[in-house]
Amino acid sequence: MEDYGRFLALLASALLVGFVSVILSFVWVFHYREGLSWDGSAGEFNWHPLLVVTGFVFIQGIAIIVYRLPWTWKCSKLLMKFIHAGLNTIAMILAIVAMVAAFEYHNAQNIPNMYSLHSWIGLTALIFYSLQLFFGFAVFLLPFAPVYLRALLMPIHVYSGLTIFATVIAAALMGITEKLLFSLRDPAYSSSPPEATFVNCLGLLLVVFGLLILWMASRPHWKRPLEESTKVLRPIGGTAEGTEVESTMTSSSNADKSDMRINTEAARKQNLKFDESGQRSTM
C-alpha cells in the first residue's frame, strides 16, 4: 500500500475521534440530561442523539472504510461484502430506533413532528440510506446482477454512500444545536454554559471524524486491489468482462497463426508447380 504509515495515522485518528464522540454522547445524556428511558419522557428522547452518533455516524463511517483496511485484503471479497453490509445494517437499525424515539417523545409531549430543517434532512437521509442498503444487497451481495450492471452502478453506489454520510453529519450538527436552543433556558445557550461548550466540542469532533472518513475513502491509491480472479482487461470503449476480451484476443492470435500456416503451405505448393513446369519444359 502506498503511504501506509499515513493511512494508519489517519485510521487511528478517525477511530479515536469517533470513539471519543460516542463517549461524549453518553456523558451528555447521563451527566447533563435526564439519562435513558422508554416512557415518553425526556429520557426516551435522549436515545435519539446517542444512537445517531453511535450508529448513523460512527458505525456507518467504519463501514465505509472497511474495504480499505490493508490487513483485510487477504480475506475474500465476499466476506468483506458481508462485513460491509452487516455494519451498515446495524447502523440503519440504530438510526431507525433513534427516529422512533424522537417521534414517540414528540407525540407524548404534544410536540409537532417534521417541522424543522433538521427533521427534514434527517428523515431524507434515513430513507436514502435504506434504499442504498437495499440496492447494495440486491446488486452487489446477491449473485444475480450481471457484471456489467455492477460495473455501471458501482460509481453511483460509492458517490451516494459518501453523500449520505456527509448529510447525516450535517443533520446531526443541526440536531444538537436545535436541542441546545430548546433546552437551555437559564442560563441560555447564548451565554455559553458548560453544557453548550461541551456539546459544541462534540459537534466539532463529528466534523473531524467525517472529514477523516471522507478523505480516506476518496484516495484512489488506498483502494482494495483487484483479486487475481477478478482482474479484467478494459480496452477503450470496450467491455469490462475480461474473459470475453481475453478469449477474443486469443482467438484472433490463433487465427493469425492459422492464416500464416495456410499462406506458407500455399506458397510451397505454388513453388512445387513452378518446379514441375520447369522440369517439363527442359525435357
Q: Which shape, going by the Cα principal axes?
A: globular
Mean pLDDT: 85
The amount of beta strand, in percent, is under 5%
- The SSE string, one letter per element, is HHHHHHHH
Q: Do you know the CATH architecture?
A: Up-down Bundle
Overall SS class = mainly alpha
- The helix content is over 70%
Q: Uncertain regions: pLDDT < 50 for 5+ in a row?
A: 229-260, 272-283
Number of helical elements? 8
Q: CATH class, please? A: Mainly Alpha
CATH topology description: Four Helix Bundle (Hemerythrin (Met), subunit A)
Subunit structure: Homodimer.
Biased composition (Polar residues): 245-255
Pfam family, one: Cytochrom_B561
Domain Cytochrome b561: 13-218
Description:
The structure is a single chain. Residues 229-260 and 272-283 have low confidence and may be disordered. This protein has one domain (4-222): Four Helix Bundle (Hemerythrin (Met), subunit A), CATH 1.20.120.1770. The radius of gyration is 31 Å and the shape is globular. With 283 residues, it is mainly alpha-helical. It has helices at 4-32, 42-45, 47-65, 77-108, 117-141, 147-183, 194-218, 242-282. Residues 237-283 are annotated as: Disordered.
